[in-house]
């Protein structure tokens, strides 16, 4: 009969795509149980590893079904994951990030106005001034900064295990970069509701080795939704920049964004009017 030790050893061959560490060592697979002919395991993925879920599940089933006395694999999801902790979502607390001095949020009322371009150029400019700079792509549904910086093929590494796991940012042009774009396949949609969005943003803030930054530039998604509220209620923001274009509809949405930051108590550093003129 297959033992728990044998099954766990076999499952330890499954590794995280970024860090190449075993999912057993990372604590992503736990509570391995064997009740012949059934095997039961618990899958506890952090939010930033959700893009690997299908692959890991497939490999788990393949490995366990290779044992002669196992013909059924049951996979349980760990319900204690941050996505389902309603108290964290409903009662967020403002908390400094030890390794970051100042946070600048770049936002826009609507998409397509060049918000990510402004965020990337701002981060590059701060880095050129000799300031230690990070760039957090919090546009979870449309992460573009990896492509803009030429690092879309990179896989961030993870060190530590359990609750001590930390994501290592990708470095380019002197900027420490973290983006959802590193954690999903190209073209893969992120179909998440508010609590999961809040959770991944908090993990990007608090479970990343930011390494003593002078500035963290955060590229927010367009609009006035969960991401903006979650950020403003999680960390002290030094100021926000709103990006717009001269068109009336863009300006209308920008005013809503400005009003949102004012209501959340976030200082406004300025408004950038992008694409102001056409140069043939």
UniProtKB/TrEMBL annotation:
Q: Which InterPro entries match?
A: FSCA_dom_sf, MIP18-like, Mrp-like_CS, Mrp/NBP35_ATP-bd, NUBPL-like, P-loop_NTPase, YlxH/NBP35
- GO process annotations (BP): iron-sulfur cluster assembly
Q: Which PROSITE patterns match?
A: MRP
CDD domains, per database record: Mrp_NBP35
- Protein's UniProt keywords contain Metal-binding: yes
Q: What is a single molecular function from GO for this protein?
A: 4 iron, 4 sulfur cluster binding
Query: What UniProt keywords are attached to this protein's entry?
Result: ATP-binding, Iron, Iron-sulfur, Metal-binding, Nucleotide-binding
Q: Which residues form the MIP18 family-like domain?
A: 10-76
Against SUPFAM superfamilies, the record matches this protein to:
Fe-S cluster assembly (FSCA) domain-like, P-loop containing nucleoside triphosphate hydrolases
* Name of the protein: MIP18 family-like domain-containing protein
- PANTHER family of this UniProt entry? IRON-SULFUR PROTEIN NUBPL
Q: Which Pfam families match?
A: FeS_assembly_P, ParA
**Which species is this UniProt entry from?**
marine metagenome
């Amino acid at each position: 009969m297959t033992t728990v030790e044998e099954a766990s050893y076999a499952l330890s061959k499954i590794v995280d795509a970024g860090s190449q560490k075993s999912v057993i060592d990372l604590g992503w697979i736990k509570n391995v149980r064997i009740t012949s002919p059934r095997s039961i395991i618990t899958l506890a993925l952090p939010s930033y590893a959700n893009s690997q879920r299908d692959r890991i599940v497939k490999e788990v089933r393949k490995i366990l079904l290779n044992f002669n006395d196992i013909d059924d694999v049951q996979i349980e999801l760990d319900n204690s994951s941050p996505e389902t902790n309603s108290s964290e979502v409903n009662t967020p607390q403002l908390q400094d990030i030890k390794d970051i001095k100042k946070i600048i949020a770049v936002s826009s009322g609507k998409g397509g106005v060049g918000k990510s371009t402004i965020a990337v150029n701002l981060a590059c400019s701060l880095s050129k001034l000799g300031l230690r700079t990070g760039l957090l792509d919090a546009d979870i549904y449309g992460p573009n900064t990896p492509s803009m910086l030429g690092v879309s093929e990179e896989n961030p590494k993870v060190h530590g295990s359990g609750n001590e796991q930390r994501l290592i940012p990708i470095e380019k042009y002197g900027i420490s970069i973290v983006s959802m774009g590193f954690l999903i396949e190209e073209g893969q949609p992120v179909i998440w509701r508010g609590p999961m969005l809040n959770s991944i943003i908090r993990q990007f803030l608090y479970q990343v080795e930011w390494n003593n930054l002078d500035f963290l530039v955060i590229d927010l998604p367009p609009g006035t939704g969960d991401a903006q509220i979650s950020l403003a209620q999680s960390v002290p923001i030094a100021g926000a920049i709103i990006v717009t274009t001269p068109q009336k509809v863009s300006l209308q949405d920008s005013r809503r964004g400005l009003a949102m930051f004012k209501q959340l108590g976030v200082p406004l550093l300025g408004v950038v009017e992008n694409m102001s003129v056409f140069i043939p």
